[in-house]
Design brief:
The protein is α+β, with helices and mostly antiparallel strands and 673 residues long. It folds into six domains: 3-98, DNA Primase, Chain A (Alpha-Beta Complex), CATH 3.90.580.10; 115-241, Alpha-Beta Complex (DNA primase DNAg catalytic core, N-terminal domain), CATH 3.90.980; 243-369, Dna Topoisomerase Vi A Subunit, Chain: A, domain 2 (3-Layer(aba) Sandwich); 381-487, no CATH class; 512-594, no CATH class; 599-664. The chain contains 27 helices and 15 strands. Strands 1-2-3-4-5 form a five-stranded antiparallel β-sheet, with helices on both faces.
Length: 673
């Protein structure tokens, strides 16, 4: 790849637009900030400098780069794959400098294969959307039964796959799409004789679009139930689609999710579309699969507040527990995970379609922690009108509460279940104290272990704490906690609110030397101050070898009239270490605003320090030369160590000291030479 091509791609790519497709950014001064898309965090530590085309994470990643390195990391691409994608978007054809013919052919094939799949998907989406308007049954279902407006159908590009075996394949063939590419896109299925038929037939079609607004796949809902036909059918995994990494409607919802700092995850396409039509535009869905760690990472780019919609049945409980474990495993300290408490028999689609938007909003506002959702779900299994049913519920509920992290959350849940205790009529204080004592025994052994050996009576019986077998109801087994104060293996977190963030790490106080060096470096590469600094700064001013190298490389470009951004990029082009050093220096917002007096003071400080260092070196050289002469050594052959050289060094030393004196007193000629 030619250097000119690389620079042309940089010039034509807006790094803010590129990064914003993966994480929301807010402008602060002349930079943009947001949460890092590569790790979970609540406090934004990710900074983008559009002038230099650079980004840097000051959080856990502690890394940075340019548009190429960003796309490499965001999409798990090689450099050439990232360059090709950026070049294609910028309208630049790469020459592939240095690549072998085989490498060029393979890269072309990979790129054009993905491009052809995207093209096939785009054409298919257009076909399905056109057919919907000509299919009375499908349009009536979407428009009248599901009450979707024409605007909503257009916004989500909802379409219809006709009840024919080869309608789409004929259309794609007429558009010049090869059979192999349509099959690779998951649109067609091969027969045994080599011919192909349409994968989607007689289904309402929902195009699945990525955050870069490209159609990557489709979901189809059957209109007329048929034997052995699934209600929903999704595209298979393709070169451009992985359901474990994709969330439906995130392309439309991500802006609102970031603004509201909340995402609501529902179970189906219709739930999403109906919610958006009703104004709940932060709603998204998984694609016929449970949440994955990739989904969690993707969500973390936009918000740390997640509300899930699950049915209050066994499957819903298991899904909620799996989600809690997944967020924990993904480093969920920054997440708040809650579950919707919908009216019995309702889902998001049915509520908002019936006009009960207020009920849906209340369900979001009153969303419960995972543990509270679990307690409420199992309550429906027991007859709490009789003492036996209440006792069974208490036993199962205490087993759930024992798994919850945090004494305050445990106490809150005890207060919620206390009313169902068989002895509730004796008073809430008595019952709650009794439950707390029972919980302590359950967690730390004693009577609870003996109770656990009794046969179940239709409810939940806690397992012995040293048993490693599987648990009923989807619980992970508790670990052995023998001995007082032995602790307890918590299996999921307190999801009703995010845990407090750890206190920030306070860096050691910088020395006066380090502060002065940093101030001068920042001023040198700041458009407002560079003219003042560039004629007075010297590479030798700096104690950090990286700072010395950066100034040494960038100063000629600055003196030649290049902008600070251009000078820094040129100086760091061939050195990843220098590039990282420059990013940390120039993208950090930890410094006080620069001012002329501070810059002048720091320049004089560094000049004086360098002058003293030079004076010490000259003095040492004179002493060494004088000592050698006193020892009657022949120094005539030692280059530069003649009496005449000593006189010249003495003159330089005196000149240096005079310069320092003028600098300290503010003399007119105080600039370092």
């Amino acid at each position: 790849m030619e250097d000119q091509e690389k620079e042309a791609i940089r010039q034509r790519t807006d790094i803010v637009e590129l990064v914003s497709a993966y994480t929301p950014l807010k402008k602060t001064g002349n930079r943009w900030k947001g949460c890092c898309p590569f790790h979970s965090e609540k406090t934004p530590s990710f900074t983008v400098d559009p002038e230099r085309g650079r980004w840097h994470c000051f959080g856990a990643c502690s890394t940075g780069g340019d548009i190429f390195t960003f796309l490499e990391r965001a999409e798990n691409l090689s450099f050439m794959e990232a360059a090709e994608r950026l070049a294609a978007k910028a309208g630049i054809t790469l020459s592939r400098k240095g690549a072998t013919p085989a490498e060029r052919e393979a890269a072309d094939r990979s790129r054009t294969e993905r491009d052809r799949v995207f093209n096939a998907n785009a054409l298919a989406a257009r076909f399905f959307q056109t057919v919907l308007r000509k299919a009375p049954l499908a349009f009536e279902y979407a428009y009248q039964k599901r009450k979707l407006s024409s605007q909503t159908l257009d916004d989500f590009a909802v379409g219809y796959a006709p009840d024919e075996w080869e309608a789409l394949s004929r259309y794609l063939h007429g558009q010049g799409v090869f059979l192999e590419d349509a099959e690779r896109a998951g649109l067609l299925t091969r027969r045994g004789d080599g011919s192909a038929y349409d994968r989607f037939r007689a289904r309402l079609i929902f195009p699945i679009v990525d955050v870069q607004e490209r159609v990557v796949a489709f979901g189809g809902r059957i209109l007329v139930p048929a034997e052995n036909a699934p209600k929903y059918l999704n595209s298979p995994e393709t070169p451009v689609f992985s359901k474990s990494k994709t969330l439906y409607a995130l392309n439309r919802a991500r802006k609102t999710i970031a603004e509201k700092d909340q995402a609501v995850i529902v179970e189906g396409y219709m739930d999403v579309v109906a919610c958006h039509q009703a104004g709940f535009t932060n709603v998204i869905a998984t694609l016929g699969t449970s949440l994955t760690d990739e989904h969690v990472r993707l969500l973390g780019r936009y918000t740390k507040n997640v509300v899930l919609s699950f049915d209050a049945d066994d499957a819903g409980i298991r899904a909620a527990l799996r989600s809690a474990e997944l967020f924990t495993a993904a480093g969920a300290n920054a997440f708040s995970l809650k579950v919707l408490n919908l009216p019995s028999g309702e889902d998001p689609d049915s509520l908002v379609t019936a006009g009960n938007t207020g009920a849906f909003q209340r369900a979001i506002d009153e969303a419960m922690s995972v543990s509270e959702f679990h307690l409420q779900a199992i309550l429906k299994r027991h007859d709490t009108q009789n003492p036996a049913g209440r006792e069974q519920y208490m036993r199962e509920a205490l087993g759930i509460i024992a798994e919850v992290r945090g004494a305050m959350e445990q106490d809150r849940l005890i207060q919620k279940i206390a009313r169902y205790h068989p002895s509730w009529e004796r008073g809430s204080v008595h019952v709650e104290e009794s439950l707390r004592a029972e919980l302590r025994r359950l967690r730390f052994g004693g009577a609870a272990q003996a109770d656990a050996q009794q046969p179940e009576r239709g409810g939940y019986t806690p397992r012995p704490q040293n048993q490693s077998g599987g648990n009923s109801g989807g619980y992970p087994a508790r670990q052995n906690t023998q001995g007082r104060g032995g602790g307890f293996a918590q299996t999921f977190r307190q999801w009703n609110a995010p845990p407090p963030e750890p206190p920030p790490t306070i860096a050691p106080e910088a020395t006066a030397d380090a502060k002065a060096e940093r101030t001068v470096l920042l001023a040198l590469f700041h458009p407002e101050w560079t003219q003042i600094v560039q004629n007075r700064v010297r590479p030798a001013f700096f104690g950090d070898a990286r700072a010395t190298a950066l100034v040494e490389r960038a100063l000629p470009a600055l003196l030649a009239g290049h902008s600070p951004a251009s000078a820094v990029n040129g100086a760091t082009e061939s050195s990843a270490e220098l590039a990282t050093f420059a990013d940390k220096l120039l993208l950090s917002d930890a410094d006080e605003p620069l001012n002329l007096q501070a810059i002048e003071d720091c320049l004089l400080f560094l000049a004086e320090r360098q002058g003293k260092r030079q004076a010490r070196n000259l003095s040492q050289q004179i002493e060494e030369s004088s000592f050698a002469q006193k020892q009657n050594k022949d120094i005539s052959t030692e280059a530069g160590k003649t009496p005449a050289a000593d006189e010249e060094r003495l003159r330089q030393w005196q000149q240096t000291m005079e310069t320092l004196k003028r600098a300290r007193t503010g003399g007119a000629d105080g600039k370092p030479g």
